[in-house]
Design goal:
The protein is α/β, with parallel strands linked by helices. It has 9 helices and 8 strands. The strands form 2 sheets. It has a 5-stranded parallel β-sheet. It has a 3-stranded parallel β-sheet with strand order 1-2-3. Bound molecules: manganese (II) ion.
């Protein structure tokens, strides 16, 4: 079992979740939303764990946390994974899109300078802009588009660029998910929960 996008550090009792994940031998990418959260979050798993911690700066926080880009650059050599990073063009965040792009480009440059990473990427209402930024940083590594909801043509472009996708149940509930996923090769699809943010009806994530 793989959970390629999970916010372990945002659970009320992260250590209890880590214990359950490790007991179940789940491979899990523990994404962070700010560089300041990385060190503490990276200490959660035990040594033999299948949990890996990604260094992130969430696009919805870019306007508040852009000063942490430098910390991101200092820490990136400590992990093979970056995330959650990307762009958010939704109503509440579109007014910060210029700053978001500047931040995202700097993060991608850091990943390139560090030799390339596995990147868990947020692209809500901004998939075209995300792909353009990735195109400008061909050395940034392997992008994995998390909870992708963009147009099918952008999904096809992303596949051509070598991107992967991480897919969770909430995404599958959308009517557009079927036709979209039909365009993505099976071997480019990973599973994800985005927990604790997204949950399935009538079922809670472990605490
Ligand atoms: Mn997330």
């Amino acid at each position: 079992m793989i959970d390629f996008h999970c916010h372990l550090d945002l659970f009320p009792r992260p250590q209890a979740v880590v214990s359950e994940v490790e007991a179940a031998s789940i491979y899990l990418l523990s994404v962070t939303t700010t560089p300041k959260a990385f060190a503490r979050t990276a200490r959660l798993p035990t040594k033999a764990s299948r949990i890996r911690t990604a260094l992130g700066l969430h696009p919805q926080l870019a306007h508040e946390r852009h000063q942490e880009v430098e910390l991101f650059s200092r820490l990136i050599s400590e992990t093979r994974y970056a995330g959650e990073i990307g762009l958010d063009g939704g109503d509440e965040f579109a007014r910060h899109i210029v700053l978001q792009k500047e931040v995202f480009n700097r993060l991608l440059r850091s990943c390139s300078d560090a030799g390339g990473k596995f990147l868990s990427i947020h692209s809500r209402h901004a998939s075209g802009e995300v792909l353009e930024a990735l195109r400008q940083h061909p050395g940034c590594g392997t992008p994995i588009l998390h909870w992708f909801t963009g147009p099918i043509r952008d999904a096809e472009r992303a596949v051509e660029m070598g991107a992967w996708f991480s897919v969770g149940l909430p995404m599958l509930r959308s009517k557009r998910a079927g036709p979209l996923l039909a365009k993505i090769p099976r071997e480019r699809i990973l599973t994800e929960t985005d927990a604790p943010f997204a949950s399935t009806k009538g079922d809670a994530y472990p605490r």
